[in-house]
Amino acid sequence: MLTLVVGLLFLAGGHTVRTQDATGSRFVCNAIPPGAEPGCGYVSTGNRFQSSSPVEDELRNTIIQLRETILQQKETIVSQQGTIKELNSKLARCEAAADVSSQGKSRGQGSRRKEYGKNTMGDLPRDPGETIDQLGKTMQSLKGRLENLEQQSLRLPSTNVSAGGVSALTPLPPELRELLRQRLGALETQLLRKVAELEEEKSQLYNETAAHRQRTESALNSLLERITELEKSNNAFKSPEDFKVSLPLRTNYLYGRIKKSLPEMYAFTVCMWLKSSASPGIGTPFSYGVPGQANEIVLIEWGNNPIELLVNDKVAQLPLSVSDGRWHHICITWTTRDGFWEAYQDGERLGTGDNLAPWHPIKPGGVIILGQEQDVVGGRFDATQAFVGELSQFNMWDRVLRPVDIMGLANCSAYMPGNVVPWIDTNVEVFGGASKAALEICEDRAFDS
């Protein structure tokens, strides 16, 4: 095209020579200045005759159109470069907004995003779903604007001289169109990647929220269950151990049952507070039966006999007297070594003995009954052996307690629940009309005395 322009300029400069005939006669044509009278008699400053022809006018007009077309295409290219820069700038703001969102998540769910100047794409919403929708709309808008630019570029005039000297419209250069398509494809890929990242972030946020809600609900349910359990266990009691079991009638259907069983033991101490005025004999304060031996451990006062301790159905008589209608604290210790036993009443040791089921281990997995003697494990009670009165603070240890510990329990100067069977409201069931009632044993004992 540059060669064409130079040739046209050369021709327009008045150097076109036209031959008239073979005799050597010539006509020299020069350009006429504006306002001059046309004709061959005009003498230029160069002392030559000049004239304009239609071909020269057409070539001059073509050059002017080419120059205007080049300028227009240059302006179009500059405008499209500005559009590409604007797209890059918006993409950078999208990336900056996504970075701010990820940093805000690492600092905590309650942190706010910072503002990064004016955003021509609109403020990014805080909700990931709204962000994804906004980015999708922005991408469609950018694609539409780029398509409009391509359509406008197709309509730009680009003059191409045909054989007849007629100008025609040519499309945008392929290189520029391909560059724009590549930039659009890259922008769309980046936006889709950002949308996928935001979708993943939204899913993670939902999962974390659901897990947190589940943990919170679980903790609340556990707390409610614990409160309900405490309400049931305490009832009217100030503390779980401040209660008594009342067995007012000598029948074979009033009794209490300890929910816990015993492990295998080679020694034990059993202590309790009891109050009874029944006669003859207070009955059976407690019994422990196992499969094959219903009288594994029994404390009983039957008829006119003294209180007896049975271990593996072997008997030892105890020097205790508790049928005066007052509260008494009694403790019984036993060890398999030589079958040695001790009997305490109100903190004082009143008797000892040995050869009570020596070297016999207490069998595990049996049933502890309050107020009845068992002929089979957990049942077949005899009304004549039933305990009549009140019981409290039934505790059992798998060792022999020291005398000082027993004295502390008897005078209410120490609190030491049993490590095998503690006296707790939830550990005691009552049946057949037996009842549980609140009792602070030390205060009630002081009132009796």
From TrEMBL:
Residue span of region Disordered: 98-128
Keywords assigned by UniProt, alphabetized: Calcium, Coiled coil, Disulfide bond, Glycoprotein, Metal-binding, Signal
Superkingdom as given in the UniProt entry: Eukaryota
Cofactor(s) essential for the protein: Ca(2+)
Residues in the signal sequence: 1-16
Domain Pentraxin (PTX), first and last residues per copy: 241-442
Protein name as catalogued: Neuronal pentraxin 2a
